[in-house]
Design brief:
By secondary structure, the protein is an all-alpha fold. It is about 85% helix and about 0% strand. It has ten helices and no strands. Helix 3 runs antiparallel to helix 4, helix 4 runs antiparallel to helix 5 and helix 5 runs antiparallel to helix 6.
Length: about 210
């Protein structure tokens, strides 16, 4: 991929000329990590994101906005890799810092709250997910309006959480009462897999 090749060259040049922890070098490393993430190269993205996060924590401090964004990027990668507890831990740290630094209803804070809600939903922590999704939806309705794209996404996320919770509940009951290979159990399992697939959770869908 041409973009990846150019970013690798830029990173190597900046490391050689500016040093491994210069702000421009860290930006290049972060950009390459984003490209790896978009390509599905999660391990490569994670490796670079850890380097950027550790450097920014050391140089800028743990609650600098650039550090928080780096921590959030790493959390998203952990989430993509299905490592929900790691993602949750990082996202809780980001949300608490954002609330303190920017306020409860700053767009970055609301986005962080939404990311954590999605992680809770992926982990099956339905009450926690629902609580945060309600906060996100109400905040976006109040600030952006009922028909803003971000508000509609929040409403859609809540619907997915309710749907997934219901399907998991029905599947567990049918497995227990009807058995794992009963046609209705298989239909429910297929519906849940379709829900996961539509949400981009390919590992769970499989």
């Amino acid at each position: 991929m041409e973009l990846q090749r150019l970013q690798v060259q830029a990173l190597e040049a900046r490391e050689r000329i500016l040093g491994s922890e210069h702000p421009h070098t860290l930006t290049s490393r972060n950009d390459l990590a984003d490209t790896y993430s978009k390509m599905g190269k999660w391990s490569d993205a994670e490796r670079l994101q850890v380097q950027v996060l550790e450097a920014r924590e050391r140089i800028l401090g743990t609650e600098h906005p650039h550090t928080l964004f780096s921590r959030n990027h790493l959390a998203k990668t952990s989430s993509k890799m299905g490592r929900w507890p790691e993602a949750e831990q990082l996202q809780v740290q980001v949300l608490e810092a954002m609330e303190q630094l920017l306020g409860e209803e700053h767009p970055h804070t609301i986005t962080s709250r939404n990311d954590l809600a999605n992680t809770y939903s992926n982990m099956g922590k339905w009450p926690d997910a629902e609580r945060l999704q309600v906060q996100v939806l109400e905040g976006r309705e109040r600030i952006l309006g009922n028909e803003h794209p971000h508000t509609l996404i929040s409403r859609h996320d809540m619907a997915n959480t309710y749907l997934k919770q219901l399907q998991v509940h029905v599947l567990e009951i049918r497995e227990r009462i009807l058995g794992f290979e009963h046609p209705e159990t298989l239909n429910t399992r297929n519906d849940l897999a379709w829900t996961y697939s539509n949400m981009g959770k390919w590992q769970d869908a499989e």
